[in-house]
Every structure is written in C-alpha cells, then in structure tokens.
Design goal:
Layout lengths: L1 H5 L11 E3 L4 E4 L2 E4 L19 H11 L15
Amino acid sequence: MMNILLSRYFNMTKVSSIKFCSDGTCTTNLGKFTLLKSVPVGMPNVLTTGGLSNERQSYLKEKVAPLMPLEYRDSISSS
C-alpha cells in the first residue's frame, strides 16, 4: 500500500531506498523531499471521554456481567 501512495510522488521503479525523517522530509536515492507542509510541534491535546451513561452502565450490569467470570464482574461499576 505504501508503494501505491508514494507512487503519486515518486517513480517507484527508480527509487531503491527511502528514509523518513522526523522533520517531515524523506531522503531517497533520487534526492530529499518535503512530505509535510509544516513540522508538528509538541504533543497533541489529550481527549477525554464523557464516560458511560447510567442507562448503558445498567445494561452492562444486567446483560454483560452475568456472562463474565466472577472475579471481573466488579469491573463494571457506576462512576
């Protein structure tokens, strides 16, 4: 699949090696190319989940917990 994507940018019959760098560039036997429009800076923001609704927790306790081994049933608890 990588060959399909890269074939848009390179003649893959002439490329014998590709080295990807963290600065958004790649170097091949044909030269150095910029892959990214801008260099990523820092880590992405952490996304927090909203958790399970009370309705969903009740469903899990009623329908799923009985199918679980006893030692794991308490892992389905209300928050």
